[in-house]
Amino acid sequence: MLAYIARRCVYAVLILVGVNLLTFTLFFAVNSPDNIARLNIGSKRVTQDAIEKWKAEHGYDKPLWFNARAEGARKITQTIFYDRSLRLFTLDFGSSDSGRDIRHEVGTRIQASLALAGPMLLLTVFVSIAFSLLLVFFRASYLDFWGTVLCVVMMSISSLFYIIMAQWLFGKTLKLVPLSGFVPGLDLVKFLALPLVVGIVFQLGSEARLFRAMLLEETNKDYVRTARSKGLSEAAVLFRHVLRNAWLPVLTHLGALLPYAFLGSIVFESFFGIPGLGTYVIEAIGGQDFAIVHTMVFLGSLLYILAYLLTDVAYTFVDPRVRLT
Amino acid sequence: MRTVLSRRSVAVIGALLLALGGCSRISNSPHPSGAERTNTFFTAFQERSPKYLDPTASYSLDETPYVYSIYEPLYRFHYLKRPYQVAPRAATAVVEPRYLDRNGHALPADAPGEQIAEAVYDIPIRRGIRFAPHPAFARDAAGNYLYHDLTPEQAADKRTPFDFARTGTRELTADDYVYAFKRLATTRIKSPSYSTFADHVIGLKEYGDRIAAADKELRAGVDPASRDLPFLDFRQYDLPGVKALDDHTLRVRLNGKYPQFKYWLTMVFTAPVAWEADKFYAQPGFAEKNLSLNYWPVGTGPYMLVEYQENRRHVLERNPNFNGETYPCEGEAADAAAGLLADCGKPLPFMDRIVFAIEKEKIPHKAKFLQGYYDNPEIQRFDWYQEFEYDVRNSEEVAQLFRERGVQMPRTLEISNWYVGFNWLDPVVGRGKTPEERARNRKLRQALSIAVDWEEFVRVFESKAAGEPAMGPVPPGVFGFRADDINPVVYSVIDGKPRRKSIDEAKRLLAEAGYPGGRDAVTGRPLVLNYDYQRALTPELKAEVEWMVRQFAKINVQLEIRATDYNRFQEKAEKGSLQVFWWGWFADYPDAENFLFLLYGPNSKALTNGNGENAANYDNAEFNRLFDELKYLDDNEHKQRVIDRMLAIVRDDAPWAFGYNPYAGSVNHQWVGNVKPGPLATDRLMYMKVDPALRAARIAEWNRPIWWPVVLMALALVAAVVPAFRAWKRRERETAGRRLAAIEER
């Protein structure tokens, strides 16, 4: 297994280099360092001198890819790309273009993201599995039919609709919870209640349908028939056999969701005023802050790579037949 | 068993309903519990935190409520008097300058501007002003500064000034203003006003060169990417134009006459900066933790910043060392009736804390305001008035709600304008090369100016563009504006009122310009103009831009929309490649010079590589000459005549279709007092007050939670689950029965 992990780590470096390259190219294809400088300085009385000064202070006064004026290896190392990319691999995120410490910001904001996305992920998976088990238990009945229709309806509606409706109903009309905001401490519960409920309801349709399909696939297998023929109760068949064997695809799906718990949900954080990493990314894109965008894309890629690696390792625990070679 | 369960269920549900029914405590407050009962002012900000709280760098509207509450410039604009009057703030009086000729001889106050070689301002500063508590001032028993030479280890866990055990203070002196003036020449941060001050303050340009050289020396051997730079001590170098005559008298010497200088002294650029604070923040490791004047300002004003959570929340708290300021006793005639003079002579500020919370989305933002959780939706912006005014006018329900809740919405005119510009360098709408071409192009611009119906614009887009159509570049409230003056190129006077000229008149001018029926008289091709817009088009903006297209279409001129982002738009302006464009200006100070300089030839954006603010690149020799004269004039009859002539020139040349002057208003709840809108009264927070008891009562009344629908939802869920549970049990029993039968068969 160690050899497998080592090989995946090498791939990870290559993937990160590729992502880095792509992010850099795309960002600077639409933003010049002059634009970034102007946006950071302000809109009134911005002189070219001020722009040049800002660029020099923030390391944007070098060429993007290739420094023709430099000698030897410095032709490559004396560039914005080299400056900005290399240090990310040592997890030195530096400062944002507006001068703020990115590592500190990420460290602070990840807590808010986790406070929402962590429980949301766990509860969504729990509720979705429970609901899909119910549908599977009543498969081919009216309950299954209408449950599936409900799932399709729920997954067809935009998350924005759920958010706006929930804010209107529970925040504005019934006045039960704040419309948005974030206060640490015990008060946090009342701020997270609405986004959590909305998040679960919004994802329930697609997740329950997915889990239902996974579970149904298992219920048609021979071992289930054998279990039933032994006279086991349906609950015992579902919980002891089907659910256990369906863990592999569920785990794969969870692996893909895991980075969101850290990176936060852009839509939910924006609408509910949660100062997490999702809003951090949105603000950085709005402010054309390359340093933050670059860091967050890098972190996102890294988390995905780690999540999938962890998923692969987890397979070996869930299913002893799986061997990582 | 089932009967017992249902009885128990009924009992539980009943108890729950009773508990919820009795639960009338507010639960939807976005603030910590009980916050509404404190002497705190709650407001919000949109998009992001202010970027610059350093007084040398701060120049944006969203920064004003912070920096003008924390710092005290020498002067201010009087909170209540209109038209705006400059009043003393940290100074004890607004002083008149003394004028000297080239030989240093005194000149009379009315000497011609050209004869004046030097203007000397001796400004007396109030005694007893003290800085807010800050670790930069903390000293030990021997008088040594406690926190000026920290090791990286000692500073490792420090992220805000409040992480230091001790704080100190000292009295403000004239040297702090000297330091602030010198700091304008900084090479470390942006200094947007430096070029203006360097043009006027004696020796500042040379001082800037010396500072640049000194900074270069200090940076020698320092990693260029490092944010830790050695302390640049501005005290070490002499600035001849700014001196402290004694601890409480500041002398500023200017090159020649510059009547607008008093306005610059109301701005935060010249607010005092303590050298101790600058030194404190220059320590290794501080910059990367955002420990700097840009995030944690150190001032003498009524408030100090105690919380800075980027893009989330900022809190100002009463400066315990602030004293000596009282509420004004004079204002406009209507102020007494409006209760704005009732607090005459009372010590300021009234409020203990100001909380700014981020609101990214407009719908929850408005809803929270109406729930009473914000006292004012956004203190530094005046367009909320237009937003709410539109809602009130278009919905009787909303109007009724506003009346019931006693929302106050006072209004005034903003010192700003929005206009459509014609690029003077463009061959079609610009100046033109030959006299004939110039005459034709002028007629084209005049025709287009008539065609764009600004009266309709402010009516149609009143939700965001309520205001009054402009007759020229100088807005109301500024010396030089005449209420009875009209733009004769665009308006006729009918029954004593201005009426926009007819479209037929515009078409006639267009034909004379060489485009009869909107087609080139020579080639027969339709006249197509490009309209540059400074933002990507949202549905709301699209409506505005399409309205503009329709205005041009009224005289058969086609308008191609070129919407872009602000950066691209700026780039195009700098290159002089705009043709027809939308732009606006928010005044630095209420003087006609600050608007007419937008049309001053040498100030052309394209010709100064973007350094000027004349986006239309307009250039008229007579206008330029008059502007040069205007710069030296005090507000008097002669200045009015000069402005009148300048307005006549630009109206005839029509480099802009003079758009509109927007309204500025303020939206506040009934418990907020002493509100007088005025964009230039930047220190307004210290005059305002809240009634926390009234606020708490109203919030409780307006936000009683309604729980019964939640109980109904829970019951519905139970009702849906119970049959499924029963079916589950039935199946289990059936399976068990089958198994039993199978065993029995065996």
Short account of what is shown:
Helices cover 74% and strands 0% of the residues of chain A.
Output the keywords.
heterodimer, A: 325 residues, mainly alpha, MetI-like fold, 2 domains, 15 helices, 74% helix, flat, B: 746 residues, alpha+beta, D-Maltodextrin-Binding Protein, domain 2, Dipeptide-binding Protein, domain 3, seven-stranded mixed sheet, 22 helices, 34% helix, globular, disordered N terminus
The CATH superfamily label of the largest domain in chain A reads MetI-like
Report the mean per-residue pLDDT of chain A as an integer. 85
Low-pLDDT segments, ≥5 res of chain A: none
CATH fourth-tier homologous superfamily of the largest domain in chain B: Periplasmic binding protein-like II
CATH-defined fold name of the largest domain in chain A: MetI-like fold
Strands of chain A, count: 0
Q: Could you tell me the CATH topology label of the largest domain in chain B.
A: D-Maltodextrin-Binding Protein, domain 2
Q: Look at the structure and give the CATH class of the largest domain in chain A.
A: Mainly Alpha
3D structure, described in words:
- The complex is a heterodimer of chains A (325) and B (746).
- The mean pLDDT of chain A is 85.
- In chain A, α2 (33-41) packs across α3 and α10 runs antiparallel to α11.
- Chain A folds into 2 domains: 2-90, no CATH class; 110-318, MetI-like fold.
- Helix content of chain A is 74%, strand content 0%.
- With 325 residues, chain A is an all-alpha fold.
- Chain A starts with a helix and ends in a 7-residue tail after the last helix.
- Chain B has 746 residues and is α+β, with helices and mostly antiparallel strands.
- Chain B folds into 3 domains: 2-24 and 706-745, no CATH class; 48-325, D-Maltodextrin-Binding Protein, domain 2, CATH 3.40.190.10; 416-665, Dipeptide-binding Protein, domain 3.
- Chain B has 22 helices and 22 strands.
- In chain B, the strands form 6 sheets. In chain B, strands 12, 13, 14, 17, 18, 19 and 20 form a 7-stranded mixed sheet that branches. In chain B, strands 5-4-6-8-7 form a 5-stranded antiparallel sheet, covered by helices on one side.
- In chain B, α12 packs antiparallel against α15 and α19 (621-630) packs antiparallel against α20.
- Residues 1-5 of chain B have low confidence and may be disordered.
- The chains are: A mainly alpha (325), B alpha+beta (746).
